[in-house]
């Protein structure tokens, strides 16, 4: 049987074209010789999200895998996949943008793809600090998922979560350290209304992003 050894210098980044995963992309480029990207397509509120991801992958000269996860919209009538729903917080503190088990599914597919392309390292921008109410973005879950992937394929994958304990201000600081603050600011899409860069300024994602950016720029003394 041919050997199927994972390449220790190769990383797969779970990539959406947003601020966090784009910062992870540059983090990966700094740490690993070979980087590939995976984007999950599942009826996002805006097709712009996929276009933005493609453009960034292209500009960075990285191989980009786009996986069709449209079956997610069969499981959940919520604001991320149903374009006519308003985004709001539910009684138990979980936003109605929550797609049950989304990150569980994404990391499973990322693991299967990492196996195929022989990448030992999987990088995801999930974060526990700006806790969004998504249980499968927490550190304990990701650690458990890492064990599960390894057992399921009999491999030693390493899931990296460089943003896990950073707040939005610190994520901007990381992109600045990586020399890409302006690129991340101007080329990424975080806004729920599908407007790139600084976005609409009104939605929760824009407000969180702007608060972190302003705090960082203030600290740096440029604002
Ligand atoms: Zn917005």
Automatic annotation (TrEMBL):
Record's catalysed reaction(s): 7-carboxy-7-carbaguanine + NH4(+) + 2 ATP = 7-cyano-7-carbaguanine + 2 AMP + 2 diphosphate + 2 H(+)
Any one Gene Ontology molecular-function term assigned to this protein's record: ATP binding
Stored SUPFAM superfamilies: Adenine nucleotide alpha hydrolases-like (SSF52402)
Annotated residues for binding of ATP: 15-25
Gene3D superfamilies in UniProt: HUPs
EC number per UniProt: 6.3.4.20
Cofactor(s) it depends on: Zn(2+)
Binding site for Zn(2+): 191, 200, 203, 206
A Pfam family recorded for this sequence: QueC
Keywords of the record: ATP-binding, Ligase, Metal-binding, Nucleotide-binding, Queuosine biosynthesis, Zinc
UniProt entry tagged with the keyword Nucleotide-binding: yes
Manner of cofactor binding, per the entry note: Binds 1 zinc ion per subunit.
Any one biological process term the GO annotation gives: tRNA queuosine(34) biosynthetic process
Known pathway: Purine metabolism; 7-cyano-7-deazaguanine biosynthesis
Assembly, per entry: Homodimer.
Protein family: Belongs to the QueC family.
General function of this protein: Catalyzes the ATP-dependent conversion of 7-carboxy-7-deazaguanine (CDG) to 7-cyano-7-deazaguanine (preQ(0)).
Name of the protein this chain belongs to: 7-cyano-7-deazaguanine synthase
Organism of provenance: Staphylococcus carnosus
Gene assigned in the entry: queC
């Amino acid at each position: 049987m041919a050997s199927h050894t994972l390449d220790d210098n190769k990383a797969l980044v779970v990539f959406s074209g947003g601020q966090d995963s784009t910062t992870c992309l540059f983090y990966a480029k700094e740490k690993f010789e070979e980087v590939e990207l995976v984007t999950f397509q599942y009826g996002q509120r805006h097709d712009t999200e996929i276009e933005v991801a493609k453009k960034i992958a292209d500009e960075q000269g990285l191989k980009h895998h786009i996986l069709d996860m449209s079956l997610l919209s069969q499981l959940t009538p919520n604001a991320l996949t149903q374009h006519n729903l308003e985004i709001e917080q539910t009684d138990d503190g979980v936003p109605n943008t929550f797609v049950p088990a989304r990150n569980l599914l994404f990391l499973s597919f990322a693991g299967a793809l990492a196996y195929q392309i022989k990448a030992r390292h999987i990088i995801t921008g999930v974060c526990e600090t700006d806790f969004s109410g998504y249980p499968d973005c927490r550190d304990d879950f990701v650690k458990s998922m890492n064990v599960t992937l390894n057992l399921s394929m009999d491999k030693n994958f390493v899931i990296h979560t460089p943003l896990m304990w950073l707040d939005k201000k610190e994520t901007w600081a990381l992109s600045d350290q990586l020399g890409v603050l302006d690129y991340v600011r101007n080329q990424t899409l975080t806004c729920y209304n599908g407007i790139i860069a600084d976005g609409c300024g009104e939605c929760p994602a824009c407000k969180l992003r702007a608060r972190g950016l302003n705090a960082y720029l203030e600290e740096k003394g440029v604002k």
